[in-house]
Amino acid sequence: MIPKNITREHVVKAIEEIDIVGIRKGRHSSTYDLIYNNKAYPPKLVLSIANRFVNGKELNPNDFDGGKGTETFKFFEDQGFTILEKIHSQDYDIITEYVNLIKSNKIQAADSIKSLILKDHFENNIKVLDQIFFNEKLKIIDSTNYHHIIDFLIDKHKIVSGEYNDFNIWSASKTYLKKINPKLVERHNELNLKVGFSDNKNGIYKSFFGERNFISYLNKKFNNSSSNKQFWLYSPGENARNWEEFYSNGVMALGWDEIGDLRNYDSRTDIKNALINTYGGDGSKKNDVSANDDFLNKIKIGDVVIVKKGRTELLGYGVVTSDYQYDQTRTEYHSFRTVDWKHKGNWELDFSLVLKTLTDITKYKSEHPDYDTYHERLLGIMEQNYKNENKERMNLPLNIIFYGPPGTGKTYHTIIRAAQIIKGAEIDSYGEALEIFNSNLHNRIEFITFHQNYNYEDFIQGLRPETDSSSTLVFEKKDGVFKRIADRALENLKLAQDAHENEQKVSRENYVIIIDEINRANISRVFGELITLIEPDKRSHGSIPLEARLPSGDPFIVPSNLFIIGTMNTADKSIALLDIALRRRFEFESMYPRYDINGQEIYDVEILKKINEQIIKLKGYDFQIGHAYFMGENDDLVQRMNKKVIPLLLEYFMNDEKEVKEILKSAGLSVNNNSWPLTISGKND
């Protein structure tokens, strides 16, 4: 269902964002494009982003269809947009596109060019010229080769030291050729025969391919595309002290005012010498030189500037709208460029940014699975359109307990949840989740089961008596499973925070400890004083981080990237009987029997329902039979009931044979008489 409050204005804002950020990984359209200002955009991505501008969050692309005749298409058409079937790359598609734009008067061209392209067989004539003069280089033109095509065409137009290539000879008039070299007329005639068409307009074909026409179009088309934009990470003064001024005035500016107008320097060496002569110091001054040289020579109109403060905060982004300028009347920061600032705010990061004033991050790769490039990730953070690996953006609780009767999928869901936390994204496939789980087990994931004898020494840290080489009694410190994974998680946080300023090789990662049967241990004895430290605000990066001192004297704090997932069998103990300290610090998610699961078969559903209806009447919801007992490879009802379900029912009802028989009969099952243990033979006829 598409929200009714999305308007054309919101759609245009979404398109403008895509122009800056680019099309997100995995979100290109496959069949149809939305056309706006002669550019193509993925319809579903545009609609998803448009919803954020009015309703605060993006639409899930899986929640609506994007094909022809759908609500999505009707919405765009009602808003005045055009949806076209995608034209896949074909020979001469760029030339065809250019010709169509001239025909529709969307691109200006001389009357002679317009007349030429309206002639019959014009596009076929272009193909002939390409075969004869251009080695079929014009067949496929894209962002990877357009600059080579431009150089090639310019070279073909040139006449070097009186030497004429065949394209120059064919496109020139006979009158002109007679004046400069009569022998060229003969070659001109030969080429006319070879080309196969002669309308005395050869020179206009040359103009068509010239710098004012087709070459100009290629430059505009590809130089303005997102694939050729550069992305810059920029600090507006020390600790971003000039940000408010720069934002208000629509500029980005650079310091080092004492060396004056950067246009006075012809090379990096000149800039370096000026910096040393003015500010002193030794060394290469590599970063300072690069900042000034990049600001003068490498930043170009259309580039995207991402603004940072320090190493862990983003402030906004914008698009460069001018070349380098210098204004000595400014109080400071005389070198500047104008910028159309698009977004402003404060975004705290859980990883470190480079420290330099100005850095070209265009080619930086992203370690986050949802993004190919580093700049896409940073822009994504500011636009809130990504799934980050931390709990705030994934919106997953740090401490959670899955609770319910046996066989309701608690362990199954812990594996999926753990994999989602590790990957930092939703996972629908259990197979994928299990692969992530197994590959991270005993590294970023730990799995343990509580029991009645489990204690603080097993979980946190213990001092165990040992004898040394001289038979003296000593106490050896031994870390428990929780402390070991907490130490690994904390080490990751420190490495991510202290990453080298010129590298982004260490990113913050999540860690998970799964505690199966969490209700079976004595919680006070296992957690001890650390029960307080697992609260989100008491953790390492919480609002009031608390550090404890362990019996060994070691300091200990629970890291903010460590998730705790517990499972609880309600047939053993209800939530009401749980340790109150544990209940206060965990969120609880119920897992009760399900009778319909998409893509999976539950056998004999009606029997399962009837059994549970009787159990609820007699003992309550916490003692039901889970759907997992009626799933899997074994679809034999008799075997499943006799070996798994009936023993569980007898346990629930303390071997009360009469009670269990009544439950089985009410479910339509035939109970074997004089049988112990109790069994069934099948369904009643």
Quick structural summary:
By secondary structure, this protein is of the alpha/beta class.
Structure characterization notes:
By secondary structure, the chain is of the alpha/beta class. The chain has 5 domains: 78 residues, no CATH class; 131 residues, no CATH class; 146 residues, ph1033 like fold, CATH 3.10.590; 199 residues, P-loop containing nucleotide triphosphate hydrolases (Rossmann fold, 3-Layer(aba) Sandwich), CATH 3.40.50.300; 79 residues. The protein is built from 26 helices and 21 strands. Strands 4, 5, 6, 7, 8, 9 and 10 form a 7-stranded mixed beta sheet that branches. A 5-stranded parallel beta sheet has the order 12-15-18-11-19. It has a 3-stranded antiparallel beta sheet with strand order 2-1-3. A hairpin with a 2-residue loop joins strand 1 and strand 2. Helix 1 crosses helix 2 and helix 7 packs antiparallel against helix 12.
Helix-strand layout with pairing:
Blueprint: H1 8-21, E1 32-36, E2 39-41, H2 43-55, H3 71-78, E3 82-85, H4 93-103, H5 111-117, H6 122-133, H7 146-157, H8 166-171, H9 174-180, H10 183-195, H11 202-208, H12 214-223, E4 231-234, H13 243-249, E5 251-254, H14 268-279, H15 286-298, E6 304-309, E7 313-320, E8 325-326, E9 335-348, E10 358-360, H16 374-383, H17 391-394, E11 399-404, H18 410-423, H19 430-440, E12 445-449, H20 456-459, E13 461-467, E14 473-479, H21 481-497, E15 511-516, H22 523-527, E16 548-549, E17 555-556, E18 562-569, H23 580-585, E19 587-590, H24 605-618, H25 637-652, H26 657-666, E20 669-671, E21 680-683
Parallel strand pairs: 4-6, 11-18, 11-19, 12-15, 15-18
Antiparallel strand pairs: 1-2, 1-3, 4-10, 5-9, 6-7, 7-9, 8-9, 13-14, 16-17, 20-21
